[in-house]
């Protein structure tokens, strides 16, 4: 295999489950990634996580990364892809939700600006600032809305229908109880494509690993797509290979067999 770039999702794919969170990476996996890099192969992770929720152990092991599902991609410290949302494009939506009493927050560079303390919802981020959406002046990678009642859920749905622009993409879970809004081009494959172009690597020279729906476009874009055995069936359906689960170091075992 003529592989010049490895791309892996984090949660449910590369990382082990530890105390209810995907945070651990084995020494074995570290050693395999180091072997791949020693061969001149670029190693990248592509995650839905934000800038403040990454795994420090990974930093010396990778050449680049894609954050917030594809909102931003970095080659080392160089920003090569940016699909953050100008605040003016979502200000009316955020202000209207705030006025309606809906819990909303906008994430920018790992900091959450909102009308509720998001650290109480997700313990992995402590970067929260109370925000006045009428005056806030930032670029936004993601918008979150959390609802607790049926009335709030209906309110969010109405506001989305009224204010969501054609450039934005909506993910709603649990019947509108958890809503995420990102740029429609904030997808993993586009961030990875920008990294590949930066390094002069063809899609056919990339292998990608994933487990969830948001990894499907990535596995389809890359020359080789690998799903971990704990992946969703839809992800397995588009994969060229199935490797062992994340907790069994499936990514590393596949790389050792075919690449390292």
What descriptors fit this protein?
Rossmann fold, 30% helix, elongated, eight-stranded mixed beta sheet, 260 residues, Hypothetical Protein, Haloacid Dehalogenase-like Hydrolase, Chain: A, domain 2, 18 strands, six-stranded mixed beta sheet, alpha/beta, 2 domains
C-alpha Rg, in Å? 19 Å
Classified by CATH, the class of the largest domain is: Alpha Beta
Assign an overall shape: elongated
Strand order of the largest sheet: 7-6-5-4-1-16-17-18
Major beta sheet, specifics?
8 strands, mixed
The termini sit apart by 11 Å
From the 3D structure, determine the CATH topology of the largest domain: Rossmann fold
Give the percentage of residues in beta strands: 25-35%
How many separate structural domains?
A: 2
Arithmetic mean pLDDT:
90
Second rung of CATH, namely the architecture of the largest domain: 3-Layer(aba) Sandwich
Helix/strand-derived class?
alpha/beta
CATH homologous superfamily placement of the largest domain? HAD superfamily/HAD-like
- The sequence of SSEs as H and E is EHEEHEEEEEHEEEEEHEEHEHEHEH
Oligomer: single chain
Show unreliable segments.
none
Percentage of residues assigned to helices: 25-40%
Helical run tally? 8
- Compute the number of strand runs: 18
């Amino acid at each position: 295999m003529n592989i010049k770039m490895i791309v892996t999702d984090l949660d449910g794919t590369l990382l082990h489950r530890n105390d209810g969170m995907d945070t651990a990476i084995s020494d074995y996996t570290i050693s395999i990634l180091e072997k791949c890099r020693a061969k001149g192969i670029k190693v990248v992770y592509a995650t839905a996580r934000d800038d403040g929720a990454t795994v420090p152990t990974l930093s010396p092991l990778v050449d680049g990364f894609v954050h917030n599902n594809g909102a931003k991609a970095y080659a080392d410290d160089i920003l090569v892809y940016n699909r953050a949302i100008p605040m003016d494009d979502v200000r009316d939506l955020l202000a209207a939700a705030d006025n309606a009493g809906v819990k909303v927050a906008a994430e920018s560079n790992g900091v959450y600006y909102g009308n509720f303390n998001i650290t109480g919802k997700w313990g992995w981020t402590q970067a929260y600032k109370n925000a006045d959406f009428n005056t806030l002046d930032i670029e936004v990678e993601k918008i979150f809305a959390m609802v607790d009642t049926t009335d709030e859920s209906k309110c969010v749905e109405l506001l989305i229908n009224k204010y969501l622009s054609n450039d934005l993409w909506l993910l709603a879970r649990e019947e509108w109880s958890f809503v995420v809004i990102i740029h429609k081009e904030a997808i993993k494959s586009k961030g990875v494509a920008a990294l590949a172009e930066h390094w002069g690597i063809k899609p056919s020279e990339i292998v990608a690993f994933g487990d969830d729906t948001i990894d499907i476009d990535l596995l389809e874009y890359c020359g080789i797509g690998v799903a971990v055995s704990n992946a969703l069936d839809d992800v397995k359906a588009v994969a060229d290979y199935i490797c062992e689960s994340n907790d069994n170091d499936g990514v590393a075992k596949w790389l050792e067999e075919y690449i390292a």
